[in-house]
């Protein structure tokens, strides 16, 4: 109908950039937002890279996601968080998450590999100064470890909030990279006597161990039974 | 006896530096070489950080270790390997490895954490140009994934060696960081009704899946049965 606007769907993929188009195996790259979110959400830690005195520093850290924004927290005294607070306009960072899914044993040493899923995020990290955004980000960090957990714990008090710095990194310049499938040996190697195949890595949880001092009657919550 | 020298044992720990002494939780840091080696050897991938056009880049990659040297390999066309070949004296890198061992659920959101073991290595990466060192390094990379595997696969041929770049990073400026144990809640939170405790992460392997085209009579090797 004339004058009626079609609703605009948000884009389902990130726009590739010079930094997110790989120099090798471009067929393994993906910019799909849903895939990127799934890889991020499955990870407990990310590896956060920044530059200090001209040299790279890579630290493992917890993180959370709300929509198209990642949050990292830490002590107000920690280096990357302090550096972010002082950076103008923001601190250049690279945040990377990797899952190893299987070992790939080929007949040739050269074709040994792993099946993996990784996400690399480039961008500027900003100090979160708005108290409400900080509070919501801290909930997201706890819920990233165990979904639903933030509602079943004591929220941070003023002293804890003051001791905690939170930085944000928007998902704009992002790519995923994946290897799936089996062995890719050269045709002339197929008759070699070496075993070749896939060794899948198993991931899971052992039974939760309650703190010795639990208040009487405290039961294991449902969200842990389903882990 | 006069004139007899006591044998000098090699140092068992790395010397802390400004970069390897953490600004927070210094009690979690360790410089013990045996511990560092164990954390490195258990990991399938490391996260390699370098600086490109002033911004950090963090990429997951396989690696190997021979004594106090780490090796990373890749296509001669890949960015960090090409940059290392062009860097003089070497490319500043930071190589980090992390294991997540357990989730720590505290009564307070603030004390949620994970048990982890990580190693951070700072230093200059050098292009490996000696053919023999390159060959031995590539064996170490394969054996890092499955110990003993390099002897049971076809070694790289001339073409494959030429297509592969290897960089080395010596273990000098190195630290490990660990969190172990249980929940550290505030005394005044102990009576809260929230479940608190440790959720251990289980790690293991599923049954290896042989490549459909295995040569007749190829059996699953013993070193995979013991995984």
Automatic annotation (TrEMBL), chains A, B:
Pfam families: Pyridox_ox_2. Residues 1-28 are annotated as: Disordered. Residues 1-23 have a biased composition (Polar residues). InterPro entries: Pyridox_Oxase-rel, Split_barrel_FMN-bd. This is Flavin-nucleotide-binding protein. It comes from Streptomyces regalis.
